[in-house]
Each structure stands twice: as C-alpha cells, then as structure tokens.
Design a protein that fits this description.
Blueprint lengths: L2 H11 L4 E5 L5 H6 L9 E6 L3 H8 L3 H7 L4 H15 L3 E7 L12 E7 L4 E7 L4 H20 L2
Parallel strand pairs: 1-2, 1-3
Antiparallel strand pairs: 3-4, 4-5
Helix pairs in contact: 1-6
Length: 154
Amino acid sequence: MSKTKELFSLLKKEKKTVALCESVTAGLVSYLLTRFSGASQIFKLGTAAYSLEAKNKLFGIPQKKLKETQGVSEGIARILAEKIRKLINSDIGASIVGFAGPKAKRGMKGVIFVGFSDKNKTVVKKIKLKGERNTIRKKAALLLIEFILENLKQ
C-alpha cells in the first residue's frame, strides 16, 4: 500500500479531517489525497499559498517576516499549519514551504519545512532534498504525506 493510500485509510478509519497549506508543492499533496473515492470525508481544504502576498493576505504573516525568509522558515511552516487547521475547523492542519528551483539563495535549494498541527501539538521538520525542481517538489509532497502519517500514528 502506498503511503498516500495508507494516510487516506487511517484518516477515514479515525474519522479525522485534514486541511493543507502548500507552497512549494503548489497543490500536489491535495491532488494525491483526493484521488481516492470518499475524499470528501477526510479532506476539508487545500490551498496553494505560493506567493508571499498570499501568505500575508490569507494567513496574516507579516510582510517583513516574509521578505526576511523569502517565505520559507520553520516559523512560517508552523503558522501555516496552525492557521489552516483553525480556519476550517479541521482535525489536522499541515503545511509545506521550501525552495525547489534555481532562484533559491545559495545553499537553500532543496530546503523544505513540513508542518503538522492538531489540537494537542504543532511540529515542524526541516529536510534537505536534492534534484531538479520537479523532482524536489514530488519528493517534498511524499515527505509531507509521510510526516502527517508519522504524527497521526503517535
């Protein structure tokens, strides 16, 4: 069973819902989770807050903080996971931000932060991936799925 199917099945079994705020993956995780019949039972919202403006206007992250970090940091992943969960009253909020392309600051290409939030905790993990832009994005999407699964099982 794929990790995506495993996560979908676990959410369904536990009658839990998830909301996602994706940046670097631009909706790929939302797509992967909603491929299965019955997705509306577990999937509340998926947003691709790709631009700094979206992170500011939709989630209230200060422009100064966004400019300093280019929208990629542990703190931003934390805020996005918490706010997306609370916004739609979901059991789980998850987020992903990172740098996949060649315009990243030196040494930052492949740096990804994944966030998980539920009523008891919010955790963020930093990961460094290698590869070309779309390879990094695909790997990052699967990492977020695994991160949600890992935290659900705890």
